[in-house]
DNA sequence: GACCTGCTGCGGTCTG
């Protein structure tokens, strides 16, 4: 293209002024954008990915204006940059401003998030900036404004940054819907995404662009920057020092401290908030000299404290930070020298993301230390290393048919200018999420927002939308305001604020934890000893104390099972163990004595074998199986088998599982051989049998809480006077029960069941696992004593029943049992 | 003093 020949050098010249040289992928992005493509840039953080799209957006403007710059306010909104995290907005804004000034333009670059003042919002609405950085939620809020098409009419580009973070969530669905609207009202719109590497890159583009654009001109630009990641496991002096079960890993603390001391800056990633608290505390106990140069960071700590930590890390005031995935993304701070991962990261992408926090410069080596919390976890370290080497990364599965988000979106459009249902139906059908929606479903949704559907017709509250001159509209101001307040798809868990008596906010804690404490008790939170004073109006009041804490809070969070990519690699590594000869992974060599014990007591399965262990102990009869498919699949598989076995003979089985396998336990003999003969592991009738074996109604009921909230059935309360979570819970359950009893075809109800199958039971993955096992040779052993594979599962089961001390006793006795 | 599983993210008017 001739004009590009004139344009690209402008960007190149500016890069040269900065002392930079454009990467190949940046040039490719510039060309693709300027030639009219939509697409996705696949590049790691810290590689100048922002400039790969900021530049062509500006160049296109220069092209249209024949090189001239024009005054602010005349152009309207030209580009929207979506970030999933507010904290990233400032950095993007700085880059954009730098480029704008560098190219001699007088574009205005502005942020629009929940933190933006109402006055600034008004200003922006009247006089839009050319370049707007915002969040998916704020974009929806803009669509809820009267006259939004005028606001967006000059828009040329939407960039979805960190698209891999959004696409696997309902926030991604929200983006798809927002884009479907913008495509119609901005005819010249180009849509681009920026994504880290994921397994399903092509699907990522489809979800972003939807059917219409994906068929047109679209491109994936892959960065040529290769990251070298080195994985080093922290090993104890002897194998005996590493426990067979457990999750905390503090017994390796003395090996971790020197790593921290030898480095200028270290991030220590833990899997849970409570582990971050515990590790921080233990590190201070063991190495008091770290006080003042070490801090902690997780999602329940106040934003103010976290900001301080991020700044201090940036300014090199801090030497180490113990954190959770709260620092996975967020501030794109200067790279740290050292990364430590405590326990299994459960997924390759997460591990690589964290490793990438060190050696930030393109081409630099990233090193990550892996601290195992139990012996078998070391196999995961070897699996991670191999996955990184061969480039096996997890998929992000886009949500399909999330009717709760669609309902919210339709009301959003009704709140602003109202919508023509035929027009919007066509747009919605073009999205990845809803491409299978049919006319009947659509009509159900319309009736739901106008009448509340068949079971809620009697209540005025749910007649939110009216039809006026053929347009679906919200006319009631109260409904409109409530709706604006509840835009978004993130449903928070129940929590209480923790504040000093003086009023300073420290963070949030869950009600059930504080319920166990009495006034005067001391607990450890946000890295300090806090004395619990009282609860007043949903606020936990505390004061600092010198007394030692007797408890560390834990939070009920999401549970992450081992990813299927990790499962594949784990099984591969275990197969490697069965082969003769020295292993290339140091972890596996270290573990060989344990593996030998497994072989001696039972069997060490290779890739063509499936191991089942059957034995009797004082507790009863145990059957253990090891699919290595993550705990969700094992939970479902355990229930499935329990059901099928009890059809052979009436028997009560209790189920326990971890990421490696599951256990069935009974006080009576388990007819396992008979069960295997009747093909108890078949994937036939899987769907029905799961439904029959699990309490799927109860699971769906729990799932429905979020759906009710997102679809606007329950209102979370006005700011400052939040409705108690218990009310939210009970009212959403009420809706569930009503739909369950009177409106079985309610799409939101059906969605709850679908979500249970897809996300909680991972039905598709279970099916694949059963099919794989069907191809394998089944080996049943009858070990005399519990095996290294069995031990952690049995411990996890007992953990739920026994108090901690008793458990410790029991583990000690079991361990003694193991000695030959 | 030991005991400790369970992440992250967002978000407030209209109209003249």
Keywords:
820 residues, alpha/beta, Rossmann fold, seven-stranded parallel β-sheet, 15% strand, DNA-binding
Task: Detail the topology: elements first, then pairings.
Elements: H1 2-18, H2 24-34, E1 38-42, H3 49-64, E2 79-82, H4 86-102, E3 109-112, H5 118-126, E4 131-134, H6 136-143, H7 148-152, E5 157-160, H8 163-167, H9 170-185, E6 190-195, H10 201-215, E7 218-222, E8 228-233, H11 253-261, E9 266-269, H12 273-286, E10 294-297, H13 303-314, E11 320-323, E12 338-342, H14 348-355, E13 365-371, H15 377-390, H16 403-415, H17 421-429, H18 439-451, E14 466-468, E15 471-473, H19 477-485, E16 496-500, E17 505-509, H20 511-515, E18 522-525, E19 528-536, E20 539-544, H21 564-578, H22 586-601, E21 609-617, E22 620-625, H23 631-648, E23 654-657, E24 662-666, H24 672-677, H25 686-693, H26 696-710, H27 725-742, H28 747-760, H29 763-775, E25 777-781, H30 790-801, H31 804-818
Parallel strand pairs: 1-6, 1-7, 2-4, 2-5, 3-4, 5-6, 8-13, 9-11, 9-12, 10-11, 12-13, 16-20, 21-25
Antiparallel strand pairs: 14-15, 16-17, 18-19, 19-20, 21-22, 22-24, 23-24
Helix pairs in contact: 1-3, 2-3, 3-4, 6-9, 9-10, 15-21, 15-22, 16-18, 16-26, 23-25, 26-27, 26-28
The protein binds one DNA strand of 16 nucleotides through residues 84-86, 113-114, 118, 121, 135-138, 140-141, 145-146, 165-166, 169, 171, 246-248, 270-275, 278, 298-299, 324-326, 328-330, 343, 350, 373, 477, 480-481, 484-490, 492, 548, 550-552, 554-560, 718-719, 799, 803-805, 807-808.
GO biological process, one term: DNA repair
Keywords: ATP-binding, DNA damage, DNA repair, DNA-binding, Helicase, Hydrolase, Isomerase, Ligase, Nucleotide-binding
GO molecular function: ATP binding; ATP hydrolysis activity; DNA binding; helicase activity; ligase activity
């Amino acid at each position: 293209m001739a004009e590009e020949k004139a344009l690209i050098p402008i960007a190149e010249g500016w890069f040269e002024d900065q002392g930079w040289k454009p990467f190949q992928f940046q040039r490719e992005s510039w060309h693709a954008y300027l030639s009219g493509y939509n697409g996705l840039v696949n590049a790691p953080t810290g590689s100048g990915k922002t400039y790969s799209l900021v530049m062509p957006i500006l160049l296109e403007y220069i092209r249209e204006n024949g090189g001239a710059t024009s005054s602010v306010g005349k152009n309207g909104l030209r580009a929207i940059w979506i970030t999933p995290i507010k904290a990233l907005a400032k950095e993007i804004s700085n880059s954009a401003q730098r480029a704008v000034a560098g190219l001699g333009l007088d574009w205005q670059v502005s942020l629009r998030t929940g933190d933006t003042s109402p006055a600034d919002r008004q200003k922006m609405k009247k006089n839009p900036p050319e370049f707007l950085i915002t969040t998916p939620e704020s974009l929806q809020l803009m669509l809820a404004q009267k006259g939004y098409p005028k606001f967006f009419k000059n828009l040329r580009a939407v960039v979805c940054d960190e698209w891999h973070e959004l696409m696997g969530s309902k926030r991604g669905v929200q983006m798809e819907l927002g884009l479907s609207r913008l495509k119609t009202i901005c005819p010249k719109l180009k849509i681009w995404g920026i994504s880290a590497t994921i397994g399903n890159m092509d699907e990522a583009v489809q979800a972003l662009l939807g059917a219409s654009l994906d068929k047109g001109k679209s491109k994936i630009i892959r960065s040529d920057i290769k990251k070298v990641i080195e994985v080093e496991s922290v090993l104890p002096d002897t194998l005996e020092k590493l426990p067979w079960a457990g999750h905390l890993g503090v017994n390796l603390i003395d090996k971790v401290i020197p790593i921290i001391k030898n480095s200028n800056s270290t991030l220590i990633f833990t899997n849970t908030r409570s582990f971050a608290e515990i590790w921080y505390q233990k590190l201070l106990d063991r190495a008091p000299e770290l006080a003042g140069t070490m801090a902690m960071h997780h999602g329940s700590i106040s934003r103010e404290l976290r900001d301080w930590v991020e700044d201090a890390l940036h300014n090199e005031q801090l030497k180490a930070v113990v954190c959770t995935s709260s620092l996975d993304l967020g501030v794109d701070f200067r790279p740290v020298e050292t990364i430590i991962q405590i326990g299994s990261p459960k997924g390759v992408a997460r591990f690589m993301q964290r490793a990438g926090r060190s050696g930030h410069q393109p081409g630099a080596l990233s090193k990550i230390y892996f601290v195992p919390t139990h012996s078998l976890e070391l196999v995961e370290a070897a699996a991670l290393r191999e996955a990184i080497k061969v480039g096996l990364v997890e998929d992000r599965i886009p949500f399909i048919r999330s009717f709760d988000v669609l309902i919210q979106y339709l009301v959003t459009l009704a709140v602003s200018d109202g919508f023509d249902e035929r027009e919007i139906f066509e747009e919605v059908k073009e999205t990845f999420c809803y491409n299978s929606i049919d006319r009947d479903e659509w009509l159900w949704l319309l009736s739901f927002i106008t009448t509340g559907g068949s079971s809620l017709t009697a209540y005025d509250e749910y007649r939110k939308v009216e039809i006026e001159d053929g347009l679906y509209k919200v006319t009631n101001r109260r409904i409109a305001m409530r709706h604006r307040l509840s835009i978004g798809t993130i449903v928070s868990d129940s929590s209480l604020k923790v504040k000093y008596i003086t009023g300073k906010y420290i963070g949030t804690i869950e009600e059930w934890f504080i319920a166990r404490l009495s006034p005067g008790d001391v607990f450890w939170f946000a890295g300090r000893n806090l004395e619990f004073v009282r609860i007043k109006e949903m606020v936990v009041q505390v004061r600092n104390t010198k007394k030692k804490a007797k408890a560390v809070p834990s939070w009920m969070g999401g549970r992450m099972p081992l990813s299927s990519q990790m499962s594949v690699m784990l099984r591969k590594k275990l197969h490697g163990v069965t082969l003769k000869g020295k292993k290339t992974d140091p972890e596996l060599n270290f573990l060989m004595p344990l593996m030998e014990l497994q072989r001696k007591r039972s069997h060490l399965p290779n890739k063509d074998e499936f191991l089942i262990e059957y034995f009797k102990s004082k507790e009863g009869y145990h059957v253990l199986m090891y699919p290595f498919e993550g705990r969700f699949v094992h939970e479902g598989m355990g229930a499935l088998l329990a059901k099928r076995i009890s059809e052979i003979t009436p028997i009560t089985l209790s189920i326990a599982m971890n990421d490696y396998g599951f256990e069935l336990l009974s006080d009576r003999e388990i007819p396992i051989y008979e069960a295997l003969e009747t093909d108890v592991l078949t994937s036939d009738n899987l769907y029905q049998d799961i439904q029959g074996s699990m309490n799927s109604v109860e699971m769906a009921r729990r799932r429905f809480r979020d759906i009710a909230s997102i679809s606007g059935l329950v209102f979370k309360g006005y700011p400052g006077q939040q409705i108690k979570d218990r009310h939210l819970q009970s009212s959403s359950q009420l809706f569930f029960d009503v739909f369950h009893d009177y409106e079985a075809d309610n799409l939101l109800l059906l969605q709850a069941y679908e979500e249970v199958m897809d996300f909680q039971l991972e039905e598709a993955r279970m099916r694949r696992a059963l099919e794989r096992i069907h191809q394998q040779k089944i080996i049943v052993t009858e070990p005399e004593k519990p095996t290294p594979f069995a031990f952690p599962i049995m411990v996890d089961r007992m953990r739920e029943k026994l108090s901690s001390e008793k458990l410790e006793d029991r583990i000690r006795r079991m361990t003694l049992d193991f000695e030959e």
